[in-house]
Amino acid sequence: MTELPEGHPSRRVVELIFASGWARTDGAAEVEVLFRVHSTARAVARFECARAAARARGEAAGDARCAADGNEMMRFQCRPAAEAGGGSEVICATVATCHQAGAARAVRTFAGSGAADAGAGGGSHEGRRGMLVCRVIAGRVRRGSTDEHPGEYDSADPGDGELVVLDRRAVLPCFLVVYRVKPPPELHSSSS
């Protein structure tokens, strides 16, 4: 990983995208550090393999968007800090997986940073957090439950901006945003 200093053009763009996903009621996310993630050649090759497979399935099904680029999109995944011992925190840039629709290594992603933070527990944890900004090959997307006909789609959209990608190779981290959330300002009511 490479730290992007304040004022770097890529950092400004990522900070804007990151900030645009927060509702005013969620508090303010303060970016502390931003890293560009350098994926290995093997990870990039696996990502491109997932794209090729999604494109082939999309073409066979007559899905033009999927056939064009595998239905690539940008998504977010929140990573709470973990104790490293000695009181220090570690935030890693690896994608967290879950078990969904028979896929032992599915990946929960979100359309916005605020939703990703909430999906990881949101206000229930304090301190530093990490947010991965990822390229995702969504492929053919099933709306609703992830449990029905798992072989016929590449990811599932259960709603509320969440997308469960059934093949972790189809998720490639690009940036790691290390941040803290400031609580929202209390609304003061004035009596007349």
Automatic annotation (TrEMBL):
Q: Which domain of life is it from?
A: Eukaryota
Protein name per its UniProtKB record: PARP catalytic domain-containing protein
To which species is this protein native? Triticum aestivum
Q: Mind giving the lineage of the organism this protein is from?
A: Eukaryota, Viridiplantae, Streptophyta, Embryophyta, Tracheophyta
